[in-house]
Design brief:
Helix content is 8%, strand content 40%. It folds into two domains: 8-79 and 226-398, Sandwich (Jelly Rolls), CATH 2.60.120.1560; 86-219, Jelly Rolls, CATH 2.60.120.260. The strands form five sheets. Strands 12, 13, 14, 16, 18, 19, 21 and 24 form an eight-stranded antiparallel sheet that branches. Strands 1, 15, 17, 20, 22 and 23 form a six-stranded antiparallel sheet that branches. A hairpin with a 5-residue loop joins β22 (367-375) and β23. It is mainly beta. The chain has helices spanning 16-40, 392-398, and strands at 8-10, 80-82, 96-98, 122-123, 132-149, 157-164, 171-175, 184-204, 209-210, 212-218, 223-225, 242-243, 245-251, 265-269, 273-277, 296-306, 310-319, 322-326, 329-334, 341-349, 352-362, 367-375, 381-382, 388-390. Bound molecules: calcium ion (2 copies). One calcium ion binds next to β10.
């Protein structure tokens, strides 16, 4: 097999750099897919470039081509996360904020804010200011910081985030100079002693002011593996299957579900069609019955029944991150904290049952998750309920 083996992309017209990025991402994904496919006997698209999917077309009519965020193996913590809790940067642990107006708001544990209160502010034009600072009484082991940038409108910021073991020597753990960003930022780095965290704003698309609502840092607990797709095994017979994917919903999450997280709710889900929805005020208020509120996660496990062997394009649209695996292999990696973002991936599927596995998380605020597909010469549509199933015997082992 050579050439493109799997195509991936997202909405919007690519820039030159993006196209280069896609080739790199596709190459990485392609190599992985070849390895995986060889091992699993999966037949992925190969040979001539497959037909362009209808969805992510750019203005020129060519398929969109930008790199997939969180491409496989792109970041060390991709398959593990630290346990929730243990924010070390709160005032109750002696952490002292400084460097900006209303500095006390950035580690008061409150993420509620509006246009006038609940966030810090400093003028990036004032070169004597070094950014928002939180200093601990003594170093703690940290491997992650996350913080909320003021996000009441669409403005985007660039910044550099630093950590320091002593408050003097600084190490940049994130530099977004080339990639303006907004809302929650989640930064992982090698576990190391940290006495101070500094976030230096560089630019804002609105004005010269940098605004941070809350900063958190974590040091607790062992690394816990994230849930992973089931190993490809013998296909069950259709007679053993029940309708719908088996959905497990996790509340109060700060990322994808780990092997230690226990679902608050589990039930069959006829299809994955939770369109973009505003932040619900209460569970069950989300669009189309999404059962969780705000920070949550979900895992969907089951099978898709393919009537006719063909090249299929899958589209995964989510707020925030999501990943699609088919027969245990990654097809779409829509990772990251973001608004509704659609990525696609293609592969050849034989007729019969194929394993489907989707993992999803919402860091907070608005949420959404939609899975669509398109056979080569057919219409694009939400993957319908009459082709999605789950195996109750597998369900038992996870309850
Ligand atoms: Ca706050
Ligand atoms: Ca969200």
């Amino acid at each position: 097999m050579d050439g493109d083996v799997t195509r991936v992309g997202r909405k919007g017209a690519p820039g030159a750099d993006d196209t280069r990025g896609l080739k790199m991402a596709a190459a990485i994904l392609g190599v992985l897919c070849i390895l995986f496919a060889t091992a699993a006997g999966l037949k992925l698209a190969s040979g001539p470039a497959p037909a362009a999917p209808e969805g992510p077309a750019s203005a020129s009519g060519k398929p969109a081509a930008t790199p997939v965020k969180g491409a496989p193996a792109a970041s060390a913590p991709a398959n593990k996360k630290r346990r929730r809790g243990g924010n070390c940067l709160v005032a109750s642990r002696g952490a002292v904020p400084s460097g900006c107006d209303r500095a006390e708001t950035i580690n008061d544990g409150i993420t509620d804010f509006d246009g006038h209160r609940g966030y810090c502010s400093y003028d990036m034009n004032n070169k004597s200011l070094e950014g928002c600072l939180i200093t601990l009484p003594k170093p703690v082991e940290l491997s992650r910081i996350r913080f909320l940038l003021w996000d009441k409108d669409d403005r985007q910021f660039t910044y550099i985030a630093y950590v320091s073991p002593d408050g003097k020597e600084w190490r940049a753990v994130k530099d977004t100079s080339d990639k303006p960003t907004r809302s929650w930022q989640d930064i992982r780095f090698d576990l190391q002693p940290v006495k101070a965290v500094r976030i230096k704003g560089l630019t804002s698309t609105a004005n010269s002011y940098f605004h941070v609502v809350e900063v958190e840092g974590y040091d607790d607990g062992p690394l816990v593996p994230l849930r992973a797709p089931p190993k490809a095994g013998p296909r069950p017979s259709s007679a053993d299957l029940k309708p719908g994917l088996w959905a497990e919903y996790f509340d109060e999450m700060d990322g994808y579900a780990t092997v230690e997280d226990r679902p608050l709710l589990a039930r069959p889900e006829p299809k994955i069609d939770f369109g973009a929805m505003p932040p619900p005020q209460q569970p069950e208020q989300g669009l189309k019955g999404w059962p969780m509120s705000n920070a949550s996660a979900a895992v969907f496990t089951g099978y898709i029944k393919i009537e006719k062997a063909d090249l299929y394009t899958f589209f995964l649209n989510s707020d925030d991150g999501s990943k699609l695996y088919i027969d245990g292999e990654p097809v779409i990696d829509n990772d990251g904290v973001h608004g509704m973002t659609e990525l696609w991936g293609q592969l050849d599927l034989s007729a019969g049952l194929h394993r489907v596995w989707i993992t999803y998380f919402n860091m907070g605020g608005a949420m959404g998750l939609v899975l669509q597909y398109k056979p080569r010469n057919d219409d694009r549509k939400v993957v319908p309920e009459d082709v999605l199933f789950h195996d109750p015997s597998e369900r038992e082992t996870r309850e």
